[in-house]
Design goal:
five-stranded parallel β-sheet; alpha/beta; disordered N terminus; globular; about 350 residues
Length: about 350
Amino acid sequence: MKPSAQMASQVILAALSIFFIVLTCTAQHLPLDQKIWDGPENGPRAQSGKKITFISQDFRNGGIAPIYRSFSSAASILKWQITLIDGIDDAKKLRVEFAKAIDSHQDAIVLGGIQAANQEFSDLFDRARKSKIVIVGWHASAEPGPTNNLFVNIATSSTEVAKIAVGHVTQSATGQIGIIIFNDSRYDVANAKTDGMKDTIKLCARCKLLSVENIKISEAHSEVPLAVTRLNQHYGKTWTHTLAINDAYFDSINMPLLAIGRTDIQNVSAGDGSSIALSRIASGKSQQVATVAEPLGLQGWQLADELNRAFAGQPPSGYTSKPVLVTTAVMTRLSGGNIDSDIPYKKAYTKIWTGAPPDK
């Protein structure tokens, strides 16, 4: 094969790869008008009277607060006593509060965004096991499902989220695409999303990964504006898109981009669909044009259901929720509702726990 023909063949194959990635993601992510329940229909009745401590890595993470609110709502039906701890992204505080929860003989501990594989907590997991305390997590591991330290981790598929985010960029953009990724390498789920985005970008012939910037989510407000100036000086007009593992990176990016005259850059988040992000996307005036959101309301109730199964001596349900690609057009269709408001998860879970659906 001649060099020119070989190059053309490679371009065609790359284009086909992107096409099938986008097609797969479109088929798999959650349709917003879904009114059917694809989760568990059977399980143990409510194991009431339990004491649970919910420990948050940092409530400034846009996904953790709504997860807690949803979990707390489900817990009220199960008649559980919930204690909330905000770790404010302080490793010492997190360890102290984790130990306190064990010493207070809780029935379970929920880790909101805290990494279960963190070696600093290994002895605490051992103590919890000896005390027969159930531990579940939300975004506490790279992928959903059981782990060595968790009865179950609640999340969507990191690989699927990454493919959807990059797929939206390649679908909506024309010409050459230069991408910068914001990551927080302390989190397994963040690294899994970043690796997935990097792998998907490699399949795009007109895409180039310019840089992966490691910035703590808790420091995004102060560090992103500085990064914008630095990155623009280095990459200039080759920087066309920003991807991020969390919406928090785009909370403080619009004004810095406006200040340097870069209103052409488009931003897409690979998680989690914070209320602030959804509001700015809905406005149609933000440079964050999309987020790959988690059905956070559903996931909070799933946390409760998985814990209830553990209390009853049953295995995890095996259910994994699906991510949702949210754009301005999608927010217009929602008319102010939540992305999972049409999914009858409350009815389904309440029926499992009580034998009857909720009044509302």
